[in-house]
What does this fold into?
Amino acid sequence: MRLLRRVLVVWLTSLFLQGLLAPAIFAWADKGHKMVASIALRQLDQAEREKILAILKHHPRWKEEFADRMPEDVRTGDAAAQLEWSIQQAAIWPDIAREYQNEVRDKFHRSTWHYINHGIYLDEQEAEKFRKEFPTGSFQVPDKVEGVTNVIQALKFTRRAMKPSEKTADAERAVYLAWIIHLIGDLHQPMHSTSLYSEKLFPTGDRGGNEVALVQRSNLHALWDSFPGTGKVTLKEARDEALTLMIDDEFKKLGEASRGQLDEESWLKESQQLAQVYVYTDEVLAPLRNYASVEELKKNPLGMSRDYMQTGGRIAKQRVVEAGNRLGAVLKEIAAEK
It folds into this structure.
């Protein structure tokens, strides 16, 4: 019996490490996005925090997604914890909106706002072909929200809408604020910037790695989404992890340096470069060249090495810290304009 139990434990542990028994993935969402929010909050003074919260309280879903969802221990705690929980909740609200139904979903869910797919290619011949077929999208800011089609346009549009000169209604400003808090996190995730194109495997792109089947976390996008952590987390868990990164000398310097660059297109270029160097490595591209179809890839998914996983985890921490510091700087601008 002891031997059987021991074998069972080893087997389950193996499955967990491979990602086959991992909890549901909430993207760079629950933990990653909440960590970004907590880092950002620490860039603001108390008056700025209260101004941001005052804007957010006009959110048309404030009761359902904020007041009613606040955990009891936070609700009965101090005002600082309630404020931080609310900003963390704003960071994941655009993902919560995916779950809405019917006209409510149509009103708030914006599927294309979370990413932009710039191309990476399996070889130079295909690169030339796909560059012609899939030209780079425009970063020009549309006049109306319906014209927004990617994360760059979304951030430019929402940041502009927050300016007093735009005379945006309070409810819309609150919604756009939640999107800004979320999208700055998204844009710093390398897989939200890039898609792999291949005539044989991904003629319309691999959807930011979603079509690259892996042993770990089911696919390449899900793996990178999971590096900051998976599953739903509490205010304290996300906050404590954020604080740990903030006092690390290396990450602290990276975060402070990142505040000087607040242009969305620069953030995109950083994520694209990281995707090219650290995501779509030879460990990914070389075996993909040998697959005849996506169906074959799904039957025989790639398995990533320990070095790849460790590097991915380090890059994820770096990007969370940079996103948090930049979000903090953007929130300071918004608070100053209110």
